[in-house]
Amino acid sequence: MNPSRWITLIVSLCTALDMSTASASKWGTNSKAQHIVNRTYQLVYGSVDMCRRYSPREADAVIAESRRFKLEYPDFITALERSPYFPQAKKNMDEDIDEMAQKATKDPKLAMCQEYILMLKQFIDQPCGKQAVEEMLLDLGK
């Protein structure tokens, strides 16, 4: 991947995964575990819903990568889904997807499906991604 594509990916993901002041209180990320659950929910589950709605031609690839992530890290997914923060992460993501409706229908690139695909692949295929998931699993266990 050329350097400009990496920069675009990083900026896009930072934008997608960053929170505005208003949504920060909604997401309530006051602990590391809560932040992990919120952001991982957005990447693994929210990306599927977002792309199904606003970029259907890319949705199959997002679904495939999300499925690969879940198969690669079953212990992490179990810890994530059992977290007390999981229901709130789902609720917040559903609201965020609804808020995106007008923007993404006008410009499907705002759904950021390609960026989600690349990020999921990095977590699955790269050693640093695997290490990051291992560390997040440890943090969820604390």
What does it look like?
The protein has 142 residues and is mainly alpha-helical. It has one domain. The protein has 8 helices and no strands. It has helices at 3-17, 21-27, 32-54, 56-72, 74-82, 86-106, 113-125, 127-140. The longest helix has 23 residues, at 32-54. It is globular, with a radius of gyration of 15 Å.
- What amount of the residues lies in strands? under 5%
String of helices and strands: HHHHHHHH
Termini distance?
A: 36 Å
Total separate domains: 1
Q: What oligomeric assembly is this protein in?
A: single chain
Average of per-residue pLDDT values: 79
Low-confidence regions: 1-27
Task: Kindly list the characteristics that best describe this protein.
142 residues, mainly alpha, 8 helices, 84% helix, globular
List the helices and strands and how they pair.
Elements: H1 3-17, H2 21-27, H3 32-54, H4 56-72, H5 74-82, H6 86-106, H7 113-125, H8 127-140
Give a brief outline of the structure.
The chain has one domain (31-140). 84% of the residues lie in helices and 0% in strands. It is mostly helical.
